[in-house]
Amino acid sequence: MNTYNFDGVDLDWEYPQADDRGGQEGDKVNYVTFAKELRSALGNRGISLTLPTSFWYLQHIDVKGLQDSVDWFNFMAYDCE
C-alpha cells in the first residue's frame, strides 16, 4: 500500500457461497470476518466492496454484517445493448 501510494482496496468476490462458483458453506460468515480484519489492518485507508444486483448471488452476502467495515458499496450493473 505504501510503496505504490494506494489509498485503499476494492473487494470483488464473485460469489461467496454460490455453489455454481465453487462457494462453500462458511463463505458468508468468513467474508464478514475477513472485512473486519482487513479494516483493522488498513486503518483509515478506504475499503470498497462490489455487490451483485442478482438476488441469487446477493443472498449469500451479509451486507449488514459488512457495513461497519466497508466505506463504500458498488453494485455490478451493466448496460448491455
Automatic annotation (TrEMBL):
Q: Which CDD domains match?
A: GH18_chitinase-like
Entries under Pfam families matching the protein: Glyco_hydro_18
Top-level division of the source organism's lineage: Eukaryota
Which classification does the entry list for the species? Eukaryota, Fungi, Dikarya, Ascomycota, Pezizomycotina
GO annotation, biological process: chitin catabolic process; polysaccharide catabolic process
Q: Which residues form the GH18 domain?
A: 1-81
Originating organism: Aureobasidium uvarum
Concerning its family, UniProt says: Belongs to the glycosyl hydrolase 18 family.
* Keywords tagged on the record: Carbohydrate metabolism, Chitin degradation, Chitin-binding, Glycosidase, Hydrolase, Polysaccharide degradation, Virulence
| Gene Ontology MF term list | chitin binding; endochitinase activity
Catalytic activity annotation: Random endo-hydrolysis of N-acetyl-beta-D-glucosaminide (1->4)-beta-linkages in chitin and chitodextrins
Give the protein's recorded name. Answer: GH18 domain-containing protein
